Amino acid sequence: MDYEKGLILDRYFLDLFGCRSFEELTTNIMNKQEGYDSDGRSNFLDGIINIEGSKIDDFDLIQYDQTIKRYVEKLRKNRKQPDFNLKYFQYLAVLFSEMFFDKIFDDRIQFLRELNQFVKTLNEEEGENYKNFSEENLKKIAFSIATGGGKTLIMHINYWQFLKYSTITFDNIVLIPPNEGLSKQHFKEMTKSGIPCKLYDGNVDNIKTKLGEVLIIDIHKLIEEKTGGGVRVDVSYFDGKNLVFVDEGHKGNISEDKVWKRRREDIARDGFILEYSATFR
């Protein structure tokens, strides 16, 4: 199956805008100047608010746009980058995730119905056999973003988005990079953005996080059964409801990737997981 055709959630949101592909949607905004107009609206909003066949209420789009502006202003202030703006593809990634979180926390069951009706329509139109979504499927979202596409800042906005909409009190918030070097880089970038965070320091007594705090621990330090000393941590330490961010979880070989996937999904079993990579394909 074609990779793009299999991205059903992405196609669902594109369909809400009356579009069949990401390219069709971006045609309306990719040449617009980044930033905001004199009314405080994103310049991208004009390109997507009146698309023929759109099923999204203009008022809702304006509200989403204003919320995204607040995230941008927070990044500008915290990172001391007054001219920072989202690029058009970053704006759409944040807009889609804003809509997703709004839907799953406002009326998850209705959202599930809408998704599965969309799946039924696709199967009838394309002669495919796409599987229905389950509630379990709504506990994970992934972002395919090319290297240099700004996925780190999208992750930071996703953090604020999730905490804005979520009615869940998480036991831990965990960010899992593929190595120690990227853990340190994420700590530096999250600190710049004003997100409370800490690096795993090898002491299991310091694993538990404060409200809203992110623990950054690379995948190599997570194991499934702790034996002896060392800095590695048994995933059972993260029992409970956890919000898990995964950066480039596909950097190992095939056998490593299967093990790593099982470990991070064990941690997120009763919570939610967000993954970011340039190499999902």
Q: What features would you describe in this structure?
A:
The protein has 281 residues and is an alpha/beta fold. The chain folds into two domains: 8-133, no CATH class; 151-277, P-loop containing nucleotide triphosphate hydrolases (Rossmann fold). It is built from eight helices and eight strands, in the order αααααβαβαβββββαβ. It has helices spanning 8-16, 22-26, 45-48, 58-78, 88-126, 151-165, 180-192, 254-267, and strands spanning 140-144, 172-176, 197-199, 214-216, 222-223, 233-234, 242-247, 272-277. The protein has a six-stranded parallel β-sheet with strand order 1-8-7-2-4-3, sandwiched between helices. Strands 5-6 form a two-stranded parallel sheet. Helix 8 links the parallel strand 7 (242-247) and strand 8 (272-277). Helix 5 packs across helix 6 (151-165). It is globular and about 55 Å long. 27% of the residues are buried. The model has no long low-confidence stretch (mean pLDDT 88).
Q: What is the approximate shape?
A: globular
Let me know the largest β-sheet: 6 strands, parallel
- CATH homologous superfamily placement of the largest domain: P-loop containing nucleotide triphosphate hydrolases
**CATH class wording of the largest domain:** Alpha Beta
Helix content: 40-55%
> Could you state the order of secondary-structure elements as H and E?
HHHHHEHEHEEEEEHE
Rounded to the nearest angstrom, the distance between the terminal CA atoms is: 12 Å
